[in-house]
Amino acid sequence: MSFLEPALSSSSISAANRPPLVELRDMTLTFAKQTILNHIQLSIPRGQTVAMIGESGCGKTMLLKSIVGLMQPTGGQVLFEARDIHGLNDIEMTDLRKKFGFVFQNAALFDSMTIGQNVAFPLIQHSLASGRDIHRIVCDRLAEVGLPENVIPKRPSQLSGGMRKRVGLARALVLEPELMLYDEPTTGLDPIMSDVINELMLRTRLKAGVTSLIVTHDMRTARKVADRVVMLYPFARLKKGENQIIFDGPPEELDTCKDKRVKQFVNGEAGERLMELRQAAYSGFDETPMLADTYAQKSHER
Amino acid sequence: MREFLRVSFIQNDWSVYVSSVPSSSRASDLNNGLEWREALTRWISDWGELVVDAMTTLGDMAIFASKIFMWLFTARPCKGTILPNFYHVGVLSLPVVALTGTFIGMVLAVQSYAQFKDLGLESRLGAVINMSLVRELGPVLAATMLAGRVGSAMAAVLGTMRVTEQIDAMTSMGANPIHYLVVPRFLACLLLIPALTVMADFMGIVGGYFYSVVMLGIDHYQYLNNSRKFVGGWDFFMGIFKSFFFGGIIAIVSCYRGFHCQAGAEGVGRAATAAFVFSFVLILGVDLMLNILLDAIYSAIWPNGAKLL
């Protein structure tokens, strides 16, 4: 099976003397004068699994989308195999995208198609297989994520969230990509299904030796699947001149990290963010007399 | 580009600042003048924003249309996308276009009969009804039905795909969404709206004939003879020619609206409504332009063309 061959070769060659698979150089992304990502430097060597953590809205998904070219960074470069992907033309980009697998947060299955058509979509699009081969590959991929053959004629709306996510995974894997990108793969799933997804990500990685970037809030995923954890912090709340990546290291170091913000995130503590709630409560305070006034006035009228 | 323009516009404008000054109603007796100026500035800036918005939308739409044409001529349409779209746009629209066409034909007969009878010209009714049907009402009616039935549905479908990241997913798998989603819809609208127009024309003619001859008792021979004398190939061609433009407008506007859909259920709803309203307005505007142009051509070729009297 061709699926296994690149796995063996890429894991046997030491990653050190090859250029990193993905490299972000000074990447900046601004939206309407609001900076989301600021001078991000990140390189991911071949075969590594990186978990990217950070609170909602810190730009994790934007970073993921910039890597596949769904977002155009406003500054800096995104290099894939030492080529700047935003300098490529349409045809080169289409070719390059065969090497990516993107698992979307809500699976993003095409609801006008059946499950089978969904999984086969990349194959048909790039006309890499035909007829019976397509059916065989689709069955194989679905079996890999633990789905029976009888889901093939079903519609995405007929499946549960966990099943849909697994179909999304199967679809992303169908072209045997070199880089897998997961956008919150376990969000919204029950603990058991989350673990199934974790297990699948691990298996994908062992089997095919793919490089993965997992955006997640789930610390269990980060600890279980990743070799390396990168934590992003929202740019707006950084101190001046501080790097937006506030943690970069193996998952074991998360517990010994001295940075309070990392600790709080890992342990799931609100910390001083509670202050914001309190401040919001106080800022609403000056409205209260007005309300009281009108109420008094009304009762007076009666 | 559009976001950028809008934002830079807002930020250059100080009315944003002024409006954040605490509650103007309390301070009104203090600075009446400032409030007045503030209102004026806001009014001007609102209009300015509207103009900038309209310009950017128009520009965006032109770029979108040019991308459609680029894909249309450089790559074969994707397999399996053409037939379903043609079926939805053409076959499923046929009954409703036929029905409305029939009614419009009959309505024309009802409306014009009294006036023409007073002039003693009721035998020429056929010419009037069929001329207005073939030249104007057939194509515009077919376009309206298509914009309502197909255009808003396209905007809603593409909008939902945008909101649920399906368009992003498509892009990330190396398929171009304009090539895969928009080109077949564009082709379906462009190529099938003439057929729908012919259907609307035909049913309108039948409906008009039925009401005039059977219900109002106009002479069968007179009705048909007058129709034949006045309505010619040019009139028929004019309607069909215009309908190509209408079809193109519907597809481009609706797909554009869907692609640039705002998040959430409200965004999708707004995209669907905007698709219909905008394409309908544009259809009528373009209709006027084309009529002026085609009439000029007509009178250049046939200076003594058919007149009713």
Can you walk through the features of this model?
The complex is a heterodimer of chains A (302) and B (309). Helices cover 40% and strands 19% of the residues of chain A. Chain A has helices at residues 5-12, 60-67, 90-97, 115-125, 131-144, 161-173, 191-208, 219-225, 260-267, 273-283, 288-301, and strands at residues 22-31, 34-44, 49-53, 75-80, 83-84, 100-103, 179-183, 211-215, 228-232, 245-249. In chain A, the strands form two sheets. Chain A has a six-stranded mixed β-sheet with strand order 6-7-8-3-9-10, with helices on both faces. The longest helix of chain A is centred in the middle third of the chain and has 18 residues, at 191-208. Mean pLDDT of chain A is 81; it is low at 1-15 and 286-302. Chain B is 82% helix and 0% strand. Chain B has helices spanning 2-11, 15-19, 32-74, 82-91, 94-118, 125-163, 166-172, 177-215, 220-230, 233-259, 264-301. The longest helix of chain B is centred in the N-terminal third of the chain and has 43 residues, at 32-74. The radius of gyration of chain B is 25 Å and the shape is globular. Residues 1-25 of chain B have low confidence and may be disordered. The chains are: A alpha/beta (302), B mainly alpha (309). Chain A binds chain B through residues 31-33, 65, 68-70, 90, 93-95, 97-98, 100, 102, 104-106, 108-112, 121-122, 124-126, 171, 175, and chain B through 3-4, 7, 11, 78-79, 157, 161, 164-166, 168-176, 180.
